[in-house]
Amino acid sequence: MNLFTQIRTLVIETLNAMQAEGALPEGLDFANVAVEPPRDPLHGDMATNAAMVLAKPAKMKPRDIADALATRLGNDPRVVSAEVAGPGFLNLRLDADLWHGVLRTALKQGTAYGRSDMGQNKRVNVEYVSANPTGPMHVGHTRGAVFGDALASLLDYVGYDVTREYYINDGGAQVDVLARSVYLRYLEAHGQEVAFPEGTYPGEYLVEVGAALKDKVGGAYVDQPEEVWLQEVRVYSTDAMMDLIRGDLKALGVEMDVFYSEKSLYGTGRIEAALKALDAKGLIYRGTLEPPKGKLPEDWEPREQTLFKSTDYGDDVDRPVQKSDGGWTYFAPDIAYHFDKIERGFDMLIDVFGADHGGYVKRMKAAVAALSDNRVPLDVKLTQLVKLYKNGEPFKMSKRAGTFVTLRDVVDQVGRDVTRFHMLTRKNDAPLDFDFDKVMEQSKDNPVFYVNYANARVHSVLRKAAEAGMTFTDADLAAADLSGVTHEAELTLAKKIAEWPRLVEIAGRTNEPHRIAFYLYELASDFHALWNRGNDTPELRFLQEGNTDATSAKIALAKATSVVISAGLGILGVTPAKEMR
């Protein structure tokens, strides 16, 4: 039940009636007519821009349209008043029973309240994390993992058929570096003293991998030339790192549907097939790129390469896909990978990249647009950096990782739920500060605590009601007489609950799961405000001693709040708390 959609339908029906009566000209497009919460709650319950967006095409004054619309809307029993404001905005006040109906719907539907068929079961691929398989996940990966996972859950909630996918970057030179680093640990396990050259991975997490390799092959690779062991150690090391990464993801509550290997694209004809598809469209050619702007690198020289005409699809320059020596550029397998996604039948693609991949967005969008003939949209979401603090100081690196703070460092310190929620308290493209002390505070300034505290308070009320001999099922609460739920603070909370279906669709339409976290904080704030009002005003307390009917109505409001909190936290991958410890 989306009450905003219902009232918008009423507005559109009224506009159609005005056209039939001759009060509006025929042929107007109502697509941009919106009904939304007013900027100032004092102005009403909902507001519509109908008169403002229709004035120009109707060749009428917006105020005249608004006055006529207000008169007609005021005749509907759901509308208590319709008031014109400013040049032609229309503010609506609604009958309290509409808000009561929202509570009943939430109680009947449970956490399905707010679910939508907006996505129409279209298939969407969300690729996220995709960390190089060279070590444990770091805090930057953590933010991308949480964002991508919450986004996937959000899209599922609004009716998309979602595939969660991890692209294993196991085809590049960094995996050779990993293999050489593991080989050094293997020699170390055999008692040799080793030194790690610059560019290798010195983290202690490879000690166990080297020892395990020794257990597997014994001394077969000791002091052998690289051509003897590199490929085998490469595969062994990558598998070991992916086991480590899968464990990290599990600790964060992330489960992937697909792990796709970059290596599977090489030697299988898939890269060639993707480039052939582009070539058939006249988008592949031999050419020489212009020199880069600014100071030229010392080793730069003009070279003829195979190029993708990405500028035809909005890129800044055409991009090389094959080097002058015949080898593939790093872009070529990425093109093939996205071509594979298109061929798998996805209707929409979403890539979650780190902040350092901003320069990669245009070329990747160009490739997908070209390969799909603009049929499959690609949305690339960049997650900005995370700065860690503890005791007011930057948090030091993990000794185990060697060079960075790991996902496990964070989760072990504060827990999965706190980590996930806090990673979504800022928009993905805004930097985020993660203070280990503040995220554990029990205060209003800590969003994850404040939201869960609201849910825990609801369950404490339910327990106290049961102790007083008043036990209510959700069906009991949905059938309760809510006519006494009329106080301003109570209706404010009910109105916020009514915003949930609208909010979740907006978040799904914009691919912005942080909106869920923001909304939950606002909902919790309204709940706590009502709770605190009850300290001074006994009739606002959720437990009305000796009055089962009044208590059931109050608890219906509280339980509906819990329903929405649980639904929202479910999207974020956070477990709702039933009591605070």
TrEMBL record:
Annotated CDD domains: ArgRS_core (cd00671)
**Do you know which SMART domains this protein is assigned to?**
Arg_tRNA_synt_N, DALR_1
Q: Can you state the subunit structure given in the record? A: Monomer.
- Its protein name is Arginine--tRNA ligase
Q: Which UniProt keywords apply?
A: Aminoacyl-tRNA synthetase, ATP-binding, Cytoplasm, Ligase, Nucleotide-binding, Protein biosynthesis
Name the source organism.
Litorivita pollutaquae
Tell me which family the UniProt entry assigns to this protein.
Belongs to the class-I aminoacyl-tRNA synthetase family.
Q: Which PANTHER family match?
A: ARGININE--TRNA LIGASE, CYTOPLASMIC, ARGINYL-TRNA SYNTHETASE
> EC number(s) on record?
6.1.1.19
Q: What is its main location?
A: cytoplasm
Q: Where in the cell is it found?
A: Cytoplasm
Spans through the membrane: none
Pfam families, per database record: Arg_tRNA_synt_N (PF03485), DALR_1 (PF05746), tRNA-synt_1d (PF00750)
Does the record bear Aminoacyl-tRNA synthetase in its keywords?
Answer: yes
What Gene Ontology molecular-function terms does this entry list? arginine-tRNA ligase activity; ATP binding
Q: Which residue intervals define the domain Arginyl tRNA synthetase N-terminal in the entry? A: 5-94
